[in-house]
Design a protein that fits this description.
Residues 320-423 form the UDP-glucose/GDP-mannose dehydrogenase C-terminal domain. Substrate binds at residues 155-158, 210, 255-259, 263, 327. Pathway: Nucleotide-sugar biosynthesis; UDP-alpha-D-glucuronate biosynthesis; UDP-alpha-D-glucuronate from UDP-alpha-D-glucose: step 1/1. The protein is elongated. Helices cover 45% and strands 14% of the residues. It is α/β, with parallel strands linked by helices. The protein contains 18 helices and 14 strands. It folds into three domains: 2-201, Rossmann fold (3-Layer(aba) Sandwich); 211-297, N-(1-d-carboxylethyl)-l-norvaline Dehydrogenase, domain 2, CATH 1.10.1040.10; 299-434, Rossmann fold (3-Layer(aba) Sandwich). The structure holds 1,4-dihydronicotinamide adenine dinucleotide (NAI) and uridine-5'-diphosphate-glucuronic acid. Residues 6-12, 29-32, 35, 83-86, 98, 101-102, 120-121, 154, 156, 158, 265-266 line the site of 1,4-dihydronicotinamide adenine dinucleotide. Residues 121, 154-158, 214, 217, 221, 255-257, 259, 262-267, 326-327 line the site of uridine-5'-diphosphate-glucuronic acid (UGA).
């Protein structure tokens, strides 16, 4: 079986490599020539654990190819996945220009029946727009080649993307064409090792499922951040409360970790987009508006604690920051809370020395530029700093040498934005620790 994956980013590259790994012939397509050249030379454009190994292995075996030529890639392919970005437009709605450009190009270049499956996160009705764009392009050619559209939203998490793709909780397929359903069933057979994991539904429901899933997860996080902030005020311990509620399977113990707010390329944009969709239909998603508001505020919580300790004016002060990426195990800086915290500290007159195990190049080139001093290692960031701010919970930050930390910092003072440090233990070592609602 042969497929094309158009858009070779976090989702397209991982999906393409994983499909190739189970024996499918895959061509990953991108308009970014440099990215394609890098991949052909075994250089990964993103950091994702386990990705390099399966990309290189499958490229060498010939099952995985990289190209900038969409027309060639879809020749003989049963499915063309659209996996390009859907960034927020100015009004918060998902910008579909990349998705529809690909649909148009497929319509221009297809030569046989093909299933065009949208993997990008797209609002309800996009399936119809994709169908329209392909049909339009075919009409312009005077062609009536048959095709089908499908919605196949992706649920992988960055930092665990390969694992998530190879062992999905579920595979959602929105489809309204029997032939297309059969093709998708065959394609996903290798991922169904234990039991039936495909959920078939109509296309709008599949599109909505993706937004509902991300919105629910974002809701859990904002809810817990709100509760943790209250815990702090009333003298309760958010860690204990988290354990206490998480043990109820109806609530579950995942995604209820308070912190400095959710970031990343998806929760912020998808929550905005679904709110916008609802507005277009005259409906107010009040819960999700609150989720977004709480998250916007939560990104300021750590800097506010710094100011509550030192005062509003931080002129001449230096802060060490451990972690820049929006979560561990990724170099992705999109909507990373670190950016908001850095801006706030700088606006109050402070300077920031930062260290992140993998995201510093990305931060330097695309997001933070020269807003911070980038350090060689975690300890280097502490030299002459007035306090340490833990922003991303990379494993290597969990058990540092407290003796060294205490010697390098000017004050034994820590602002722990992810609740990874034991406040009581550190107190015995002479550290003062502020965190998100735990004792
Ligand atoms: N990043 C993630 O963890 C997840 C993302 N998604 C969704 O998947 C979609 C893609 O997200 P990412 O992979 O993060 O985006 P990305 O920005 O990493 O990658 C998109 C790629 O598409 C390419 N592209 C743009 N226009 C093109 C065209 N006309 N032809 C060929 N290539 C083109 C870009 O050059 C880029 O390499 C988004 O809708 C996102 O919401 C869904 C689940 C997880
Ligand atoms: O649509 C997407 O792109 C993806 O969005 C999220 O994945 P991702 O953004 O990669 O990472 P998450 O692990 O979900 O973390 C998102 C943010 O929430 C924060 N978070 C997560 C969990 C938690 O308990 N507390 C918390 O603050 C993380 O620090 C991070 O900033 C979803 O988990 C994926 O299922 C989905 O496919």
């Amino acid at each position: 079986m042969k497929i094309a994956v158009v858009g070779t980013g976090y989702v397209g590259l991982v999906s393409g490599a994983c499909f190739a790994d189970v024996g499918i012939e895959v061509t990953c397509v991108d308009i970014d020539q440099k990215k394609i050249e890098k991949l052909k030379n075994g250089i990964m454009p993103i950091y994702e654990p386990g990705l390099e190994e399966i990309v290189v292995r499958n490229y060498k075996s010939g099952r995985l190819n990289f190209s900038t030529d969409l027309g060639e890639a879809i020749q003989g392919a049963s499915v063309a996945f659209i996996a390009v970005g859907t960034p927020p437009g100015e009004d918060g709605s998902a910008d579909l220009k990349y998705v529809l450009a690909v649909a148009d190009e497929i319509g221009q270049k297809m030569t046989d029946y093909i299933v065009v499956a949208t993997k990008s996160t797209v609002p309800v009705t996009t399936g119809e727009k994709v169908r329209g764009a392909i049909k339009n392009a075919l009409d312009k050619r005077g062609s009536d080649l048959p095709f089908a559209v499908a919605s196949n939203p992706e649920f992988l998490k960055e930092g665990a993307a390969v694992e998530d793709f190879l062992k999905p909780d579920r595979i959602v397929i929105g489809v309204d064409d029997e032939r297309a359903e059969e093709i998708m069933k065959r394609l996903y057979k290798p991922f169904q090792l234990s039991g039936e994991r495909i959920i078939y539904m109509d296309i709008p429901s599949a599109e909505m499922t993706k937004y509902a899933a991300n919105s629910m997860l974002a809701t859990k996080i904002s809810f817990m951040n709100d509760i943790a902030n209250l815990c702090e005020k009333v003298g309760a311990d958010a860690n204990m409360v988290r354990k206490g509620i998480g043990s109820d399977p109806r609530i579950g113990n995942k995604f209820i970790y308070p912190g400095v707010g959710y970031g990343g390329s998806c929760f912020p944009k998808d929550v905005k987009a679904i709110i916008k969709t609802a507005k277009q239909y005259g409906y107010d998603l009040r819960v999700l508006q609150a989720v977004e508001d709480v998250n916007d505020d939560q990104k300021h919580v750590l800097a506010n604690k710094v100011k509550a300790h030192f005062g509003e004016d931080l002129s001449g002060m230096t802060f060490a920051m451990w972690g820049l990426s929006f979560k561990p195990n990724t170099d992705d800086m999109r909507e990373a809370p670190a950016g908001v915290i850095i801006d706030e500290l700088r606006a109050a007159g402070a300077t920031v020395k930062a260290y992140d195990p993998v995201a510093m190049e990305e931060a330097k080139e695309h997001y933070l530029f020269d807003k911070v001093t980038y350090c060689n290692d975690a300890y280097d960031a502490l030299v002459d700093a007035d306090a340490l701010l833990l922003v991303t919970e990379w494993s290597e930050f969990r058990i540092p040498s407290w003796e060294v930390v205490g010697k390098l910092l000017k004050n034994k003072l820590i602002f722990d934005g992810r609740n990874i440090y034991d406040k009581k233990y550190l107190k015995t070592l002479g550290f003062e620790v502020y965190n998100i609602g735990t004792k």
